[in-house]
Amino acid sequence: LFAGEVDFLKGVVAMSGLPPDDRIEVCFAGRSNVGKSSLINAITGRKALARASNTPGRTQEINYFTLGDERYLVDLPGYGYANAPVKVVEKWQALLKQYLSGRASLRRAFVLVDSRHGIKPVDEEIMTLLDKSAVTFQVVLTKADKIKPSQYEGLLKQVRGKLAKHPAAYPELVLTSSDKGDGIATLRSIIAGIA
Ligand code: GDP
């Protein structure tokens, strides 16, 4: 699906460190522990690819992965850490704002939301930032295996209700489980189809 190499490229701490913007780029954002590393590993088919970049000290970096020769997958640091120092949060928010508003090759953000929790206020903050930056975003529900089918309807209702307030939201949701493999092929083909 992604012709060429799928691999970790680099971690970036400042706009000056970004690779040239000559590839189609999608980014992944989500609260810490939402299952972002597991999902990236499932999409790339490379066990522990994202985990390797998730070691302490790298967690505030924007991590670049090559998805073949034409695309980048960008792993944004998880947000919503309970005990993150204010200085660290501020620095990260500044970089995030610069990245989202200044990256011409960024086509879509995938905002990961835990199926058990739905959209939280901290998710809405990033969605508002995406609205302001005019970056289309699509919600990916993670850990779908952790909820009962009878809970899907309530979850989708909560998510759709929140998304209605965000002009940059893409209406189609993707329900995934990295553990069971649900939705992974769908997400891959969505990314491969972004021009
Ligand atoms: P990150 O902090 O967003 O990168 O989250 P991780 O990928 O490290 O996952 C956080 C925790 O959730 C880990 O214990 C994972 O094993 C678990 N997890 C991730 N994805 C799934 C999933 O699809 N199903 C289940 N049941 N657990 C998951």
UniProtKB/TrEMBL annotation:
<keyword id="KW-0479">Metal-binding</keyword>
<feature type="domain" description="EngB-type G">
    <location>
        <begin position="22"/>
        <end position="195"/>
    </location>
</feature>
<dbReference type="GO" id="GO:0005525">
    <property type="term" value="F:GTP binding"/>
</dbReference>
<keyword id="KW-0342">GTP-binding</keyword>
<dbReference type="InterPro" id="IPR030393">
    <property type="entry name" value="G_ENGB_dom"/>
</dbReference>
<keyword id="KW-0547">Nucleotide-binding</keyword>
<dbReference type="Pfam" id="PF01926">
    <property type="entry name" value="MMR_HSR1"/>
</dbReference>
<keyword id="KW-0460">Magnesium</keyword>
<dbReference type="GO" id="GO:0005829">
    <property type="term" value="C:cytosol"/>
</dbReference>
<dbReference type="InterPro" id="IPR006073">
    <property type="entry name" value="GTP-bd"/>
</dbReference>
<comment type="function">
    <text>Necessary for normal cell division and for the maintenance of normal septation.</text>
</comment>
<keyword id="KW-0132">Cell division</keyword>
<dbReference type="GO" id="GO:0046872">
    <property type="term" value="F:metal ion binding"/>
</dbReference>
<dbReference type="GO" id="GO:0000917">
    <property type="term" value="P:division septum assembly"/>
</dbReference>
<comment type="similarity">
    <text>Belongs to the TRAFAC class TrmE-Era-EngA-EngB-Septin-like GTPase superfamily. EngB GTPase family.</text>
</comment>
<dbReference type="InterPro" id="IPR027417">
    <property type="entry name" value="P-loop_NTPase"/>
</dbReference>
<protein>
    <recommendedName>
        <fullName>Probable GTP-binding protein EngB</fullName>
    </recommendedName>
</protein>
<keyword id="KW-0717">Septation</keyword>
<keyword id="KW-0131">Cell cycle</keyword>
<dbReference type="InterPro" id="IPR019987">
    <property type="entry name" value="GTP-bd_ribosome_bio_YsxC"/>
</dbReference>
